[in-house]
Amino acid sequence: MVQQSIYLAGPDVFWPNATELGAAKKVLCEQYGFTGHFPLDNEIDLSQLSPFEAGIRIYQANIGLMNHCDLIIANMTPFRGPSMDVGSAFEMGYMAAQNKPVWGYTLDGRLYSDRIEGTATDQDGFSIESFSMVDNLMMVGATDARGGLLTEPMAETLDNHLRLFEKVLQQIQKNR
Q1: In whole angstroms, how large is the CA radius of gyration of the chain?
Q2: Fewer CB within 10 Å, N or C, the chain?
Q3: Rounded to an integer, what distance in angstroms lies between the CA atom of residue 67 and that of residue 58?
Q4: What are phi and psi of 56, to 5 degrees?
Q5: 123-135 pLDDT, tens per residue?
Q6: pLDDT tens across 19-32, in order?
Q7: Distance in angstroms (rounded) separating the CA atoms of residues 127 and 122
């Protein structure tokens, strides 16, 4: 069987120990017969670029990396708000549009609607999505269509991320 490549999405790239987390996830991928690709693996020289140009270069490099991967595992734990990281959401959509399996995990087991104050509407009168899902229906739908989503309420620590990430790898391996 050909070794599958996995794009490792999530706000992990913003963590103070991002390189350590990415390396640990790649080691776990290898243990389960996969090749993991972390966005920080891209070796690009940004030193001569403006911040805008650097952002576009990173975008292009990540698109290239996703194009060469067979599937995606996204850390969907809420980041900087009640929902998952918006860049990771884009990456999940990009992979889904290519009909590649989309897997995700979250350490926050609460329903999306429970993370937002209000009942049927928020403080500004906008309706709150209430489909008994842990995140936006489009993100959960992407994992449901060709992959899976593991949810396990626990503290957001490096060890817990790796523990749940490994469970995702086990599920992918079972579904091969």
Answers
A1: 17
A2: N
A3: 14
A4: -65, -40
A5: 777 888 888 899 9
A6: 999 999 999 999 99
A7: 6
In sequence order, what are the residues at sequence separation of 6 or more whose Cβ sits closer than 8 angstroms to the Cβ of residue 128? 113, 116, 118, 119, 120, 121, 122
Mean pLDDT of 113-131: 77
Angle separating helix axes 86-97 and 51-67, nearest 10 degrees: 40
> In this structure, what DSSP letter does residue 48 have?
T
- The letter for the amino acid at 43 is E
Instruction: Quickly count helices (H) and strands (E) in the chain.
Output: 5, 5
> Measured at the alpha carbon of residue 107, what is the angle toward residues 87 and 169, in degrees to the nearest 5?
80
DSSP category for residue 40: G
Q: Encoding tokens for residue 166?
A: 């490994």
pLDDT tens column, 58-71: 999 999 999 999 99
Backbone angles phi, psi at 70, to 5 degrees: -90, -25
CATH number for the region 4-174 comes to 3.40.50.450
Dist. CA 149–CA 75, nearest whole Å:
10
pLDDT of 50 strictly over 90: yes
Cβ neighbours around 119 below 10 Å, total: 9
List the domain boundaries for the chain: 4-174
